[in-house]
Amino acid sequence: MTEATWTQRLFGGMRRTSEKLGENLGSLTSGGTTLDAQTLDDVEDALIASDLGPATAKVIRDRLADTKFERGVDAQGVRAVMADEIAQILRPVAKPLEIDAFPRPQVILVIGVNGSGKTTTIAKIAHYFLEQDYGVMLAAGDTFRAAAIGQLKVWAERLGVPIVSGPEGGDAAGIVFDAVKLATATGIDVLIVDPFVSSHGVSENNNGAIDAIAKKWARVGVQANCSIVLVHHTKKLNGGEATADAARGASALPNAARSVVALNRMSHEEATQWGIEGDDRRRYFRAYDDKNNRAPPASRSDWYQLVSVDLGNGPDGTGDNMQVVVPWSPPDAFTGVTTAHLIRVQDAVRGGSWRADPQSEDWVGIAVAEVLNLDVSDRRGTDAARIKQMLKLWGQTGVLKKETRRCDKTRRDKPFIVCGEAVQP
């Protein structure tokens, strides 16, 4: 018996998930079950047990609760609602990856601090080109770390693409040379080199030398008739943002690239703002094309999350786990906040003297927290961060205003928050 391919194992796991979903729903919704609270809870548990995830299961549960079934609900009805809801979830992210791979050569420079997901993103880019029927090859140029070589080999095996690599501590430039030679000989469309620094031996601070290297890569693209994707590191950022300008060494490389994709891990401040606890923030990162300094703020970047997927290819239904990247959207600070809440906030502001400074004992956020039943005892906590977002937007829309007046306690002029345009019910 021949060993199953990775693709066959993947689809086999999906098939088992589909069968498990049918079994879980069928046992709960046979014969037109009445949709009471207990049944909805049972359906939600069945969806979670069928690998849909807690967030998606809750959305489907809420949708079922709002849907009227004349003769009760059955498995087919749940599937119809589920299919429609999943389609709505996927529709906003069903956008083409805007990478103009051709005409050649195109250089895509991936920049990010260590551990931000550059190699995983390379795999996503490779998968994208494979879906466009282009031939892809990987080159493992980071010979300083055996783990880096191993990670890229795993991705190459899973994607079914060739990889050129060598032993730990080997000649990185020789590996890149062999990759270029092989890509040219075999007609590869896209060669992805991880990382760029391994492809040359010049000083990264020598702008002229780096420019010459970039031009050599462009000639490689022309001669091999392929697109070139290079992975580069940033300089030490000391907590700053990874941008095209933060690329390590000279500016010639970002200047030569047609696209510069910058990757940043979620910061402590972003994690606090969105309620991501502890080290879980390291599983989230954002990406944007920073060419020509078009970097958007974090709230408008494309966010992604690293999740572990059980392929279910083992004899007992479990098996290999694969870390994959999925789109992710930051939570909305105004979720659950109604016009009635805002009217109560305005009433509270009118009835007191509230400071704009979050560190003040009379901070206006305390009034908002009392209305929304939130906790701002920690002014750097998640609830406080959420309220700061609300106050910013309310200030921009004019429902709350900032004015400077004398503070009785300090006898100095301080910014206070007062009501603006009254909100109508």
Number of domains: 3
Note poorly predicted spans. 103-107
Describe the global form.
flat
What's the CATH H-level superfamily name of the largest domain? Answer: P-loop containing nucleotide triphosphate hydrolases
CATH 2nd-level architecture of the largest domain? 3-Layer(aba) Sandwich
Question: How would you describe the overall organization of this protein?
Answer:
With about 425 residues, the protein is of the alpha/beta class. The chain has helices at about 5-30, 35-50, 55-65, 75-90, 120-130, 145-160, 170-185, 205-225, 250-255, 270-275, 340-350, 365-370, 380-395; strands spanning about 105-110, 135-140, 165, 190-195, 225-235, 260-265, 285-290, 300-310, 320-330, 355, 400-405, 410-420. The chain has three domains: about 5-95, Four Helix Bundle (Hemerythrin (Met), subunit A), CATH 1.20.120; about 105-330, Rossmann fold, CATH 3.40.50.300; about 340-420, Arc Repressor Mutant, subunit A. It is about 40% helix and about 15% strand. The protein has a nine-stranded mixed beta sheet with strand order 3-2-4-5-1-6-7-8-9, sandwiched between helices. Strands 10-12-11 form a three-stranded antiparallel beta sheet. Strand 11 (about 400-405) and strand 12 (about 410-420) form a beta hairpin. The model is unreliable at about 105 (pLDDT under 50).
